[in-house]
Amino acid sequence: MKPAAILSVFGLSALTVALPAIVERDASPSPRVPPDDGPSVPACWISLSCTFKEIEATSMSSRLDYVRYMQYAHFGPLKADNQFRAIEGVIEFFISEKLGAPGTWVSYVDAGIVEAIQRGGANALGLSTATGGNPGSDKWASFLTRRKNGGLTDRDDHDPAWSESEQTATEYGKLKAETTSGVSPATKEQLRWYQFTQLFRAIMRNRSTVILFIRATFIFTNPGLAFAAEAFINWLTDITSDLPTRLGCEVAYTLSELDLPLGANLINDAKLLGALLPKLYKIYKENK
Length: 288
Hints:
Oligomer: single chain
Number of strands: 0
Helix content: 55-70%
Strand content: under 5%
Radius of gyration: 19 Å
Low-confidence stretches: 1-30
Shape: globular
């Protein structure tokens, strides 16, 4: 088992001790951008052909509109009109914290994510074969093509594929940020926040392992607790809702302002996860 998987398993098993009453709930839908192709809609939105540079130059509010527009206006035939709500939640967080102005590290990372979704969608729809040099484009094209063909309906298959696509696009945006002259570097707080997002993706990639471990640990001593833990994981990694990622980002960024260890390794990740989960549980209860 990979270190990230081990961390996710043991971190989440600790969480189950504190979560005996958690149940799943539905998030209210976010507002949608009307899918008209009038003069207010940029031409590259209609053709799904915006370049990385064009996306990076826009505000976070514009990017949020674009992610919603892609789902609403384009991705219905791909059976993916709700597959990027988690990305909406992250961008909503950026807007609320006034992060991601063009030319910054956060902006570049996010632009890589949005570009890959767009180009993957264009590929799956047969509108284009261009990738923009973004390796996440091919990942999303494969994901969306499988969705179009009726696949990836089971979360054990869906979540790893979604996470791997998002991870690849995120890493591309991060690389662009760190190798482009003039980009404002990430702060320590932003790097710590990024570590939290890595943990989220690791949980998605190893969802089956996490759930099996929790079932094995609690099925005889406290089966109700095991069930609650599974429901929590399902809620936390539900990419069809913007709420878990938005709340998770808020908690993670608040904690990132503390003097927590920086650097991606098992010990540091364990400390960060241990600090995150109690706070996330508190926020979860307040928003039930």
